[in-house]
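Supplementary Text 2. Reproducibility record for the structural model of the 434-residue chain.

All settings were left at their defaults, and a single model was retained for analysis rather than an ensemble. We include the record here because the model underlies the residue-level annotations in Supplementary Table 4.
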Amino acid sequence: MKSKLRKGFKDLRWRVSVYRAKRARAKSKATFIGVTGSSGKSTVTALLGHILAAHRPVYTQVLANTLHSVVSALYRRMKQVERADYVVMETGAYGVDSIRPMAEMLQPHVAVVTMVRLEHVASFRTLENVAAEKRALVAALRPGGLAVLNADDPYVADMAAGAGCRVVTFGAAQTADYRVTDIHAAYPDRLTFSIHWRGGLLQIETSFPAEYFWLPTVAAVATALELGVPSDKVVAQVATFQPVVNRCAMLITEGGPQFILDVAKAPWHSINLALDMMAKATAIRKRIVIGQISDYTGSSRKYAHAYQTARDIADQVIYTGDNAHRSRASQSDRDSGQFVELRTVKEVSDHIKRTAVPGELILVKSSSNLHLERIALAWTHDVKCWIPVCGKAEGCQTCGMYELPYEQHRAHVMLRRRTRMWRQFRGMFGGRSS
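Retained model, structure tokens:
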């Protein structure tokens, strides 16, 4: 009986939340921009918000890309949304028909699609199914809307057919409305490239350490220019933007290693991109740490292929996590130290601290569940949370409790919550006279 009541109350709360969110969306006069794609959507969303913020008020929601987070943002942050001229939100696909309800809630004026790759294999199975899921954002555009599409990806380019909206394209293709050339990045040289568009030529300088970030960058640039942001302002804002946390973000330690943290997600199509970045980089020594590869389907080939590529690039390759044994590294590589297998994040951190060389470059690549960002954070903080898998979707930087043992997290959260409630109580009644 109690469980039924709880379920009923939970359902009622959700219905009320959806109703309030729809009301907030209806009241807002802002231009709504939805961003989706198998990769790059968080960077597009954050960078576009950064560009637009220099032009007009903007509300940006990055990383939180589920229906629950969209609904929550619309009704809990209603005032922020109402004050904004632009609302930029990413929408993620976690299963069949997961984007459509988000898109219908957003009713976007602009839809940006970065790429289609095989992700969440158990749910989608084929690229065609992924493309159909992403297309839902374009299909939900308001009348007179704008679709900003990747001209180099046939699955994305096909979304223009029958869209019934204005379409602009970006990419390296000759036919792209925003055509990219002269791409260069070789760490420590950061990403630069040129954009050819109807307004002429733009020279883009960024803080990204890898070439492949040209795609989300030009997607954000094209969208901002189509929304009327002056080109000089766009170029200046791109130059000051820092990578999204754990998405090829840099951590340069004093007298220690330089870390590139690419630990937010690791679909198979992203592995070679990260390794290519390391191949082009220049450093006194290179090491690569590989954790969990996303969408793992049971075969060891992905880990073995990744190792064979990484070993030709780095002075040392370190595998960690439950699949660390799947590298198929030879015994001679193990004996020489070319390959190191360590099961826990703490062991990797301790190993790197023992063997670090000042100025060496270390790529840390994994999906988010292992929280390998702790390896780098341990150089600047007293990290005490070393639980192998905590179950939290957010990164350690966002969680902020990595200096506490995991066993103390719950008590810390409860204390913080009580403190906040007490402050609210004092604010309501503390100023009254007797």
